[in-house]
């Protein structure tokens, strides 16, 4: 069974083979290194003229890619760690996402790929999940594959998108096997009608009405799926919804899958406060308040620096124990 990194890398190879306009820019992306997490390994050997190693200047990399996109290429930018996105925020917020509106006929079809998340002991400046900083940027699509998606298909969809896409790859997922239709314990399907970035719907095989609905994305999916498997043995049915696009939120597709008669839990790895869960909960309340039977619960990382020490990092980040505890608390209140 292929893992997350292998499928993502395969998606990049397919995109390069399908379209000669696709290029990739980033730090240390050439072979034999192939990027800090080896996602681009082999790409520069097969497509040597289209993989470009850059100096250490995230703003410069992103600005150069914007110009290449305007001139008709399909650039992919690799930012080595998501924490460094802050260095290219001016290019994203004040240029890339505005050009198509400011200048009629101009398009900036580029993808910014970056690994996010903690759990590897990298410390406060290499472990953050900063995607919430970009969810309010007009004109920017934010995609965050879960373990229930095929990241290779999603990266190809992002590359052919005519709008700028921020593509979040949680670094803890790279080595993990995908959860797909071949899973012996869980039913996995993609909800139709959500465009290029589907909602993955996961629940125990042979079940219908869930006891709890969990909405999550990206890196938090590894914890959610582990808890689902464990609690299904205790006949607690959890339905998990993982949208690939976290901005815009495919709200209609999510609402049609939610069971409003049971508890709803929103889980994300980013820090608490002013985040994806806040916005999602607000929209659900606006649309489903008359039929909701319980308040929506939200889980996120603490609003704190992420330490290097594993036992301290575990206390800051969302984990399986917290998710299971929130589920049991929600069920006990029914």
Description:
With 334 residues, the chain is α/β, with parallel strands linked by helices. Helix content is 32%, strand content 20%. The chain has helices at residues 4-18, 43-46, 58-70, 89-96, 99-102, 151-160, 221-232, 251-257, 276-288, 310-316, 320-332, and strands at 22-26, 51-53, 74-78, 111-116, 141-143, 165-170, 186-191, 199-204, 212-216, 238-243, 245-247, 264-271, 297-301. A 7-stranded mixed beta sheet has the order 2-1-3-4-6-5-11, with helices on both faces. A 6-stranded mixed beta sheet has the order 7-8-10-9-12-13, sandwiched between helices. Helix 6 links the parallel strand 5 and strand 6. The mean pLDDT is 95.
Going across the biggest sheet, name each strand in turn.
2-1-3-4-6-5-11
The geometry reads as: globular
The mean pLDDT is: 95
**How much helix is in the residues?**
25-40%
N-to-C SSE string, H for helix and E for strand: HEHEHEHHEEHEEEEHEEHEHEHH
Oligomer: single chain
Give a quick precis of the structure.
With 334 residues, this protein is of the alpha/beta class.
Question: What's the structural blueprint in terms of helices and strands?
Answer:
Layout: H1 4-18, E1 22-26, H2 43-46, E2 51-53, H3 58-70, E3 74-78, H4 89-96, H5 99-102, E4 111-116, E5 141-143, H6 151-160, E6 165-170, E7 186-191, E8 199-204, E9 212-216, H7 221-232, E10 238-243, E11 245-247, H8 251-257, E12 264-271, H9 276-288, E13 297-301, H10 310-316, H11 320-332
Parallel strand pairs: 1-2, 1-3, 3-4, 4-6, 5-6, 9-10, 9-12, 12-13
Antiparallel strand pairs: 5-11, 7-8, 8-10
Helix pairs in contact: 1-6, 3-4, 7-11
